[in-house]
Structures are given as structure tokens and as C-alpha cells.
């Protein structure tokens, strides 16, 4: 029983829940009038996205089970290795989805709509869109944008257009760097493990990565100097958080090109001390300046 529970926990990938930190964008940057109530709603929204993302991961592993068996690392996943059966995975998906939608409906009807949209897009991605060049990365980015919307409009915080643009660019950046890392790691086995990689090449991806990285820096810098931002937060000093963003982006690019990291952005962000320090200092300084 203990082994089965451990396998189920691995299947829902709790380490990936760190991605749901995007839900707290509104709490950190938005115009918040009742902090305690807003923070509670943000926590519930984040929990609902943790649950639905785990349901999506389980669905993805269920669909890709046979393909994963031929992958050097993915063959160890609970479904591919036989530790969890198909029927157990299906029940888990149903339970996680039901609980996620229930919690989301408590937060707001918009949050529930965003959760349903997230599930729908990811089903399409798993079944078809993951093999469509460029659109595959936009699907990944859309998941993060839905998290940002859930943590702003979903809990009653008007989202900044500059911040939404920045969020889109940084998620596209992470998506394209992930594809670059997969090409570097899989090399000749690309076709067998992820067909869409055959439509990418390193030069093209480097161009897309450069464009999105520059867009993140420009969009966030303009956000910090925007008149509306200054009015809401009563400070012109958010511009001093920009160096932390620039450093984290450059450090991540270094890891991809020198260390061949990037295949798992979540793991890279958690394991790299310099990126974590930069993110931590950025968060502390931002919170100090706006609250």
C-alpha cells in the first residue's frame, strides 16, 4: 500500500506545483484592498490549479504510456513502469478534476472558467497540438497566462496589460528554452520521443529565445515605469527590481547553453542557487516597495 501511494504521488508530480506561483502575481503586483481575503482566494485558486495540473499530468502520462516506455528517463514513470494501472490513473484524474473545479467555483465563476479552459487546452495539446510547431509552445504559455488571470481577474484584481504581456513573454521564453534543451539532450532520438522537435533547429530556437528574453526585459521595465503602476503602488522605485529579472534570465540561458539544462524548467529553477537567490531578492524587494 505504501509503495502504491508513493507511486500515485509521483504520478501527480507535486514538484511541478511551484509553477502555480504565477497565481500570486495579483497579490504581489496588483491593487489589493483587503489583503487577508484576497490572499485566501489566491491560495484557493493556486490549490485548484495544483489539482487540475496534476490531473493533466496524469492524463498525459496515460496517453503517452507506450511512448514513455521507450524513453531513457520517462520509462521509470509510474504508468510506464506498471506501478499504477490505467484504471487507477483514470479514477485519479476524475477525483483531481472534480476537486479542482469545486474549489475553483468557490473562488469565482471566472476562476472555474479558467480551470475548464486550462483542462481543455491541455487535452488538445496532449492529443494533437504538441506536434504542431510553435503552437505547441503557445499552448504551454497559455497555461501560465490562465494562472496569472486566475490570480488577478479571477480574484477581483484588475490585471495590468504590461504585466500580462510580460507574463506571456516569459512563459514563451521558458517554452522555447525547454525545446532547445530537449534537442540538446535527445539529439538523434528526437523523432522517437517528441516528433515536433524535428521541426525546430537550434538557430531558429536561439532567435525565438533572444526575442522573448528581450521582450520580457522591455515589457517588465516599461511596467515598472508606467504611470498607472506608479499610481497604484505609490512608488517609482520598482525599476530597481529589473536587474534581478535580467540576471535570472541570463543565468538560465547560461545553464541551457553550458550545462545543457532547461529540459525541466521547474527543477532548474529550484536547484540553481543563483536563480533562487535572484528570485528571492526580487520578491522581497518588490513586496517591500509595493506593500
UniProtKB/TrEMBL annotation:
GO molecular function term, any single one: transferase activity, transferring alkyl or aryl (other than methyl) groups
Claim: Membrane is one of the keywords in the record: yes
Annotated GO CC locations: plasma membrane
An individual GO BP term: glycolipid biosynthetic process
Subcellular location: Membrane
TM spans (from-to): 39-59, 89-121, 133-156, 162-181, 202-223, 238-254, 275-290
Gene3D superfamilies according to UniProt: UbiA prenyltransferase (1.10.357.140)
Membrane topology: Multi-pass membrane protein
Name the record gives this protein: UbiA prenyltransferase
Organism this protein belongs to: Estrella lausannensis
Amino acid at each position: 500500500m505504501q509503495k502504491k501511494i508513493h507511486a500515485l504521488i509521483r504520478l501527480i508530480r507535486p514538484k511541478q506545483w511551484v509553477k502555480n506561483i504565477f497565481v500570486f502575481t495579483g497579490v504581489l503586483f496588483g491593487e489589493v484592498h483587503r489583503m487577508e481575503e484576497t490572499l485566501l482566494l489566491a491560495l484557493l485558486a493556486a490549490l485548484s490549479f495544483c489539482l487540475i495540473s496534476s490531473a493533466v499530468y496524469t492524463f498525459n502520462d496515460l496517453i503517452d504510456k507506450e511512448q514513455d516506455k521507450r524513453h531513457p528517463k520517462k520509462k521509470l514513470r509510474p504508468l510506464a513502469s506498471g506501478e499504477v494501472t490505467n484504471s487507477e490513473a483514470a479514477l485519479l484524474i476524475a477525483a483531481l478534476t472534480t476537486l479542482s473545479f469545486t474549489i475553483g467555483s468557490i473562488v469565482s465563476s471566472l476562476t472555474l472558467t479558467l480551470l475548464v479552459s486550462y483542462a481543455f487546452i491541455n487535452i488538445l495539446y496532449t492529443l494533437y497540438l504538441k506536434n504542431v510547431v510553435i503552437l505547441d509552445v503557445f499552448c504551454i504559455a497559455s497555461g501560465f497566462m490562465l494562472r496569472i488571470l486566475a490570480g488577478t481577474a479571477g480574484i477581483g484584481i484588475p490585471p495590468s496589460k504590461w504585466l500580462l504581456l510580460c507574463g506571456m513573454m516569459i512563459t514563451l521564453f521558458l517554452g522555447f528554452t525547454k525545446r532547445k534543451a530537449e534537442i540538446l539532450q535527445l539529439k538523434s532520438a528526437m523523432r522517437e520521443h517528441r516528433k515536433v522537435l524535428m521541426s525546430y533547429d537550434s538557430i531558429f530556437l536561439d532567435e525565438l529565445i533572444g526575442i522573448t528574453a528581450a521582450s520580457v526585459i522591455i515589457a517588465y521595465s516599461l511596467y515598472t515605469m508606467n504611470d498607472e503602476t506608479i499610481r497604484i503602488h505609490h512608488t517609482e522605485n520598482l525599476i530597481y527590481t529589473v536587474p534581478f529579472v535580467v540576471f535570472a534570465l541570463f543565468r538560465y540561458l547560461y545553464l541551457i547553453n553550458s550545462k545543457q539544462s532547461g529540459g525541466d524548467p521547474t527543477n532548474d529553477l529550484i536547484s540553481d542557487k543563483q536563480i533562487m537567490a535572484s528570485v528571492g531578492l526580487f520578491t522581497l524587494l518588490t513586496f517591500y516597495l509595493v506593500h
